[in-house]
Specification:
Blueprint: H1 3-11, H2 16-34, H3 53-58, H4 64-158, E1 165-167, H5 178-182, H6 188-208, E2 216-218, H7 221-238, H8 243-252, H9 254-267
Antiparallel strand pairs: 1-2
Helix pairs in contact: 2-4, 4-6, 4-7, 6-9, 7-9
Length: 277
């Protein structure tokens, strides 16, 4: 059913059958009055002065049974007309109700589809907001990590002798300064990368020499402590970085540097009390 059909059906007035029934009723009464001369044969014989003229003219001297039969026969078509009109009016009203129910159901279905679309739209908007929030959080983590790396590089450069160690029996074991290893490029990532590479090689050499635990001593334990905690903080922050940022962290070998610092803490006798835990 199209919308024009719905509009046309709404404009169809259920009372048209009432008008039709009324018209048929009037036509039937006129037919009775003008055509059905029921008293032709008895009008003169039954005329009495004791009855009104119109009674004598139309009903004459009919008995009650005859009068009842007459009225029943005369009004039976009218009863049928109004019964049929009532049935048709009720049928049309029921049809209109069914149509309204159908359109109500269609409206509910349309509303449901609209609600589904809105839910989908809200879901997409929520995902977009979540992605934006995640992007902001990732950017904030990267910023904090870069600040931690910069702080680590500054600690290494300020505490220039933090990487200097001596051996209890080897006096020339390792006396190195940060600026000697790093060179002129003092960018944070370069400083951390160069020191990580140096310590990794130094770690290998130390293992090859098979030195004993507690046989090393940090030349400047307080400077080593400052670098150690700065590196530990940067390493912890690196664990929460997004995947793309971790690639940059891996190129700096920050985690390897942290493992190497822990190894030297274990082998340096004077760092046990300086480094907590």
């Amino acid at each position: 059913m199209t919308i024009p059909e719905k509009t046309a059906e709404k404009k169809t007035c259920p009372s048209k059958w009432l008008f039709i029934a009324s018209g048929l009723t009037i036509a039937y009464i006129v037919f009775l009055l003008l055509v059905a001369d029921v008293t032709v044969d008895i009008r003169d014989a039954c005329h009495t002065a004791s009855k009104p003229a119109w009674v004598s003219e139309w009903f004459g001297c009919l008995t009650m049974n005859e009068l009842g039969d007459f009225l029943a026969g005369a009004f039976a078509p009218l009863a049928f007309i109004w019964l049929a009109a009532a049935v048709l009016i009720q049928s049309q009203e029921l049809k209109a109700q069914r149509t309204e129910l159908m359109w109500t159901r269609l409206e509910f279905e349309k509303n449901r589809e609209v609600m589904k679309a809105q839910v989908g739209y809200i879901g997409e908007q929520t995902k977009i907001l979540e992605r934006e929030q995640q992007t902001r959080e990732d950017a904030e983590r990267v910023r904090i990590f870069e600040a931690a790396v910069e702080n680590l590089a500054i600690r290494m450069l300020d505490a220039n002798n933090w990487a200097s160690f001596v051996h209890q029996r080897i006096s020339t074991f390792n006396r190195i300064k940060t600026d000697v290893i790093v060179g002129e490029n003092h960018e944070s990532e370069n400083v951390v990368r160069k020191m990580s590479n140096f310590y990794r090689q130094n770690h290998i050499n130390t293992q090859l020499s098979k030195i004993e635990k507690n046989s090393l001593n940090s030349t400047y334990p307080d400077e080593f402590k400052a670098v150690y905690y700065a590196c530990e903080r940067a390493d912890i922050i690196a664990g929460s970085l997004p995947h793309d940022a971790r690639i940059n962290m891996e190129t700096m070998k920050l985690h390897e540097l942290m493992e190497q610092l822990r190894w030297f803490v274990e082998y340096a006798d004077n760092l046990h009390d300086v480094i907590d835990g």
